[in-house]
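Structure tokens please, single chain.
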Amino acid sequence: MFIEGSYRVLYIDSGSGFFPVGCLTSHSFSEESETIDTTTRDNAGWNTTKATNQSYSISFSGLVLENQNTVGKQTYNDLKSIKRNRTLIKWRVDQSESGEGIITSLSDSNEMEESVSFDAELIGYGKPFIGILVEDGYGNIIEDGYGNLLIAT
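Here you go.
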């Protein structure tokens, strides 16, 4: 069986709790690793590499709501405010993945006799997690006392 994309919703918390991105039409998650070239006596002239820094991004698109004061959703105006204020946000995709990031790009498209749409990109801050980070009810992420973050799976 496959996972239906309609059931994987992107939620953003900019300080007042997690809310779904309003009228989300798509989102994608991409990871990359930087590498450095290495060489050994045993590689017989073949290129080898070592992974160094890693990064990820989430690209997402949606439709702009007519009522930008909609409660319970992250609207296009909310996203503009988050981006313009350079807010470090928490994100999650349902109960499967979570992390923190910064919205680095946001644009809209206005075509005649079509709904206004938007595209955005979120660049990850630190490592993404499989599962949801556990909070204490005051917005603080809980650790186990040894520097390990607690994750609900």
